[in-house]
Design a protein that fits this description.
single chain, alpha/beta, Amidase signature (AS) enzymes, eleven-stranded mixed β-sheet, 11 strands, about 30% helix, asparaginyl-tRNA synthase (glutamine-hydrolyzing) activity, AS_sf
């Protein structure tokens, strides 16, 4: 095997720990691993349609990591690890298309070329991760189920090709699930990390809002958007969160995170006995009045037994009679999604466009609207038409330079947090563990969407959630859990998720 050539590496099961062990042992180099990933992309991307742009500098970056390692430099755990980036995140050298033909010149639109990376992309570069390229998304990341309307065409679910892959980070999940990359960056406004992670049998972290910066990411809501990792296991996701989390002046929300990050990092609480003695709240009508399907309920009963065996104390429906479920309000004409908090998108887009730099093709929301007017996704037939039913959206649309007040969103966020904290305290709960979906995945093409147990609740409240695989339906459709806790509880939640993951691997 010559230096720099691709190798027969088992990409399907590769983890950060295994990559670093191989580097240390001299089994392969970062360049050889990157080449192997590009070989896999060449072989399988046409089948899954996960990546839309490949990074021509990736092999040079890998060679640089190899040289630094050979020189004896101490490198972090992500150095040399192949990673993919969700398309709406700005990455220098590539247009940010947000899945929309109107934002891609080769499909007749306008290229948005950033002059600098989004903070999360810059942090991954500084950590030495090898950025392989950018992944496909639905138009403006509008759905949590699929990427069927992207200019790049649909992305396919790797373990279940006839079912939805989850959205809007479908393609990050497909890239990781297919072995094209070891890790991926995802982003969520309403289920877009948790859905694709568990739709493809992976782990995802939806952080507390304000923990990870989302400047330089095409917004749906500056009040709800969060960036987080999708990985093959809990440890890898935690290591990635270590890199992503923390303050930057580019996103003032992150100031709230100061003092809330664990001193030992997000792997510090990973332990096989982390669930022992912990009080865990279970899904019920007090949280949301939508029941689980019969098969989901049966799978959840098995999970409850597993949690008990791990020493957890289970509390049935702790939100009963709390008023929590009554706070949810679906935004018409949608049937399942509470969009409150998205009213600010004209202002958020204006701020995003300003960050692109002085040479950007579009610098204001007015220019954005004019360039996309013949395919207006905010109009009566657009994917975001429901925004007109949010109280302050039209005010924001009339003057995108001013942030809307959004009193309804602020009020419901406060009420969610007040009730949540009261219930957690009353029952002395350490976490909630719910099935992430109420039923199995719907078909890839059709009108059905993923039915979650929680999206708006934790996205509006800004609470963290860790998505963890937990088995399969009879059809083979993945079944998974969402671990939810108080704001800034990521380290503890990752510990619980790790304990569950380890127990499943041993069974």
């Amino acid at each position: 095997m010559t230096q720099g050539s691709a190798m027969d590496i088992d990409l399907d099961a590769l983890t950060v720990e295994a990559v670093q062990a191989a580097f240390k042992a001299g089994t392969y180099t970062a360049e050889q691993l990157a080449r192997a990933c590009f070989d896999r992309i060449e072989r399988d991307n046409a089948k899954y349609n996960a990546l839309i742009f490949l990074n021509p500098d990736a092999l040079d970056d890998a060679r640089t990591i190899d040289a630094r390692r050979a020189a004896g430099e101490s490198l972090g755990p992500l150095a040399g690890v192949p990673v993919v980036i969700k398309d709406p995140m700005d990455m220098v050298g590539f247009p940010t298309t947000a899945g929309w033909a109107k934002l891609y010149s080769k499909r007749g639109g306008v290229d948005l070329m950033p002059e600098r990376d989004a903070p999360v992309v810059a942090r991954m570069r500084r950590a030495g991760a090898i950025l392989l390229g950018k992944t496909n998304v639905p138009i403006l990341s509008h759905t949590g189920s699929h990427a069927n309307d992207s200019w790049a065409e649909p992305t396919i679910n790797v373990p279940m090709p006839d079912r939805v892959p989850g959205g809007s980070s479908a393609d990050t999940a497909s890239a990781v699930a297919s072995g094209m990359a070891v890790l991926g960056l995802a982003e969520e406004t309403g289920g877009s990390i948790q859905n694709p992670a568990l739709a493809q049998d992976l782990v995802g972290i939806k952080p507390t809002i304000g923990l990870v910066p989302n400047a330089g990411v095409v917004p749906l809501s500056g009040n709800r958007d969060v960036v987080g990792p999708i990985a093959r296991n809990v440890r890898d996701a935690a290591l990635c969160l270590d890199v992503l989390a923390g303050y930057t002046s580019e996103d003032t929300k992150t100031l709230a995170s100061v003092g809330h990050q664990p001193a030992g990092g997000y792997t510090s609480a990973l332990a096989a006995d982390a669930l022992s003695g912990k009080r865990i709240g279970l899904y019920g009508a007090g949280w949301r009045t939508q029941p689980l399907s019969d098969e989901a309920a049966a799978l959840y009963e098995r999970v409850k037994r597993e949690l008990t065996d791990l020493g957890a104390v289970l509390i049935d429906d702790p939100f009963k009679d709390s008023g929590f479920a009554g706070l949810r309000k679906v935004t018409p004409p949608l049937e399942h999604f509470d969009a409150r908090g998205l009213e600010s998108i004209p202002y958020d887009l204006e701020k995003y466009l300003q960050r692109l730099g002085k040479d950007a093709a579009l610098k204001t929301f007015a220019e954005f609207a004019e360039a996309t007017q013949d395919d207006d996704q905010f109009g009566p037939d657009g994917v975001l038409r429901y925004l007109h039913n949010l109280a302050d959206f039209r005010t924001a649309l009339a003057n995108p330079s001013l942030p809307p007040e959004m009193p309804e969103f602020v009020d419901v966020k406060a009420r969610y947090l007040t009730i949540f904290d009261a219930v957690m305290s009353e029952h002395r709960l350490d976490a909630l563990i719910f099935p992430q979906m109420r039923c199995e995945l719907p078909p890839l093409h059709g009108t059905d969407i993923i039915q979650e147990t929680t999206v708006g609740e934790i996205n509006i409240a800004g609470l963290p959630g860790i998505a963890v695989p937990a088995g399969y339906y009879a059809s083979g459709s993945p079944f998974g859990l969402i671990f939810v806790g108080r704001q800034w509880d990521e380290a503890a939640l990752l510990g619980y998720a790790y304990a569950y993951e380890v127990s499943r691997s041993r069974s």
